[in-house]
Structures are given as structure tokens and as C-alpha cells.
Amino acid sequence: KVVKYEIIPDEKDQIVNILKTWVDKDGLDLIITTGGTGVYPRDVTPEATKEVIEKEIPGIPEYIRYISYPITPMAALTRGLAGVRKNTLIINLPGSPKAIKEIFPKLIPIIKHAVEKIKGDPSECARD
């Protein structure tokens, strides 16, 4: 369920502040950003996210690009990140609504599993 939604400008400090507030004050399980992940000079969402996260999860953006390559080679230009701050998963998605429609359904099981693991759920973890 969506509990927060805000449109903010491509300003690194504002992105950092809202991400920190939503994690540190509001304790959200998941934050998904859209846009600001390309190579345009004002695209700073990955830089803001990198400043906020404590653990990077490179596999999520790698998977996003993998899904996107058959649709467009321009997927190579996306710089989105994913990572964890405290108990919150943060994922940068592209700004294109078409791209999100293509990507998001395939990410849902990964997101659900990641959020469970971040919260400490030990099930389905490899054990010796």
C-alpha cells in the first residue's frame, strides 16, 4: 500500500532529505524513486541515494537493465541504484511510465523477498 507520495525537483539535497525523513522518521519498509537516473546533467537521484544508503544491492539495478535491454539498448544509460538504510529498501526506477510498466511486475517478488529479509525473516535463507 502506498503511504507517501511526493514529487520533488531534481535537487540532490532535497532528495537526500526526503529519503532520510522517510526512513529515519517515518520508518517506511520500501521507497521507490522514479526518474533522475539517466545522464542528463540534472539527473542526480543515484548520487542522492548513494549518500543515504548503508548497504548497496547491485543485483536489483542489474536485473532492471537485464529486463530492459531486449526492449531498448538505451537501458545501458540508466544509473539507478538500490540499497538499504536501516530497515528500508530504496530502489531507483527510470522516469518513463512505459519502462516502469515493463519492469515493476517482474520486480514485485524480489521486492517482497528483500523487504522480508531486511526485517530479519530467516525463512528461505541458505543454511549449512
Automatic annotation (TrEMBL):
<dbReference type="GO" id="GO:0061598">
    <property type="term" value="F:molybdopterin adenylyltransferase activity"/>
</dbReference>
<keyword id="KW-0501">Molybdenum cofactor biosynthesis</keyword>
<feature type="domain" description="MoaB/Mog">
    <location>
        <begin position="1"/>
        <end position="114"/>
    </location>
</feature>
<dbReference type="InterPro" id="IPR036425">
    <property type="entry name" value="MoaB/Mog-like_dom_sf"/>
</dbReference>
<dbReference type="InterPro" id="IPR008284">
    <property type="entry name" value="MoCF_biosynth_CS"/>
</dbReference>
<dbReference type="InterPro" id="IPR001453">
    <property type="entry name" value="MoaB/Mog_dom"/>
</dbReference>
<dbReference type="Pfam" id="PF00994">
    <property type="entry name" value="MoCF_biosynth"/>
</dbReference>
<protein>
    <recommendedName>
        <fullName>Molybdopterin adenylyltransferase</fullName>
        <ecNumber>2.7.7.75</ecNumber>
    </recommendedName>
</protein>
<dbReference type="GO" id="GO:0006777">
    <property type="term" value="P:Mo-molybdopterin cofactor biosynthetic process"/>
</dbReference>
<dbReference type="InterPro" id="IPR051920">
    <property type="entry name" value="MPT_Adenylyltrnsfr/MoaC-Rel"/>
</dbReference>
<comment type="pathway">
    <text>Cofactor biosynthesis; molybdopterin biosynthesis.</text>
</comment>
<comment type="function">
    <text>Catalyzes the adenylation of molybdopterin as part of the biosynthesis of the molybdenum-cofactor.</text>
</comment>
